[in-house]
């Protein structure tokens, strides 16, 4: 370990000093594990051995430790921007190029736009349609959305009162009566009853207008009326089949960038782009694919249902997606390490994979909505109440 010229000697580091950060005190080696080797010398500036620190930093560290031991309200410790800590917090995302858009020119465009935004591709690869089907990767990826379309029968559905009111307003029929008349079906049942293919169901579903022909009950939970049936998540079957077609593949990318340079929210809005590529940010991937689809050898103009790119909505989703698509159990994942320190277990991740409804404070919502667009440290903090409950 090269510590020449550092303020702290190796024996002091071997004692695993606590890193002083606002609202946190964690062993320095754990924080260092997700950093590059070069900042290790600077790590010493945040350890308890402050006798050789410059006076200003030594005074700051002394005051911070005094507040820590006195259990008083903390103020942020001002440190140089190149000192490891939140200023150098890294976001690690997972991005996929969907099968219908997986061309050589499209892959090249993805790399170029990521590079232009200062986002590093840590590793990447390809998964064939056969593997996606055999391992049910897309069903696991969409979790509850897929379950509602394929496995959950109407009798087991729990529709909130607000959703039932929206159903009656949209269709003029109470939800209870629709159930009693056996008019509610999941997407798989609808195909069998109506004799439709997944493409036929998907095409008809795309024609429905929100509030007129379909309603939203919750996150990933939709109901649309087609041929007299009230179909749950009718969009899913056609989308799913896009991943199964022979000769196609999913291209995946593990990404990393500094949160101080770009927030997760900005990454989604300005790098990935809105769900509808026609209105996405002018410099985003989805807008680029929309405007250049012929030049990129795509089969058709992208739209909301086939918008070419998937990007994880939070560090938690990114960890879940790496576990699913890459067989990555997550133990080398920097975000998982932080989450584990906070008390998370593999059992937590398995439960969270299905995006359950959670209540934190006065807010009740789907778990992924709770942490949407949060950067790494903020995401851990948002999950801590769920670890204590």
Describe the structure.
With 389 residues, the protein is α+β, with helices and mostly antiparallel strands. Among the domains are: 10-88, no CATH class; 159-238, no CATH class; 328-389, no CATH class. The protein has helices spanning 10-14, 28-32, 40-43, 55-70, 104-116, 129-134, 137-142, 144-150, 161-171, 175-180, 187-194, 198-206, 236-242, 264-272, 285-291, 315-326, 334-341, 346-352, 367-370, 376-388; strands at residues 18-21, 24-27, 90-97, 120-128, 184-186, 214-218, 221-226, 229-232, 249-258, 309-311, 357-360, 363-366. The strands form four sheets. It has a four-stranded antiparallel sheet, with helices on both faces. The chain has a four-stranded mixed sheet with strand order 5-8-7-6. The chain has a two-stranded antiparallel ribbon with strand order 1-2. β11 and β12 form a beta hairpin. It is globular. InterPro entries: NDK-like_dom_sf (IPR036850). The chain crosses the membrane at residues 219-239.
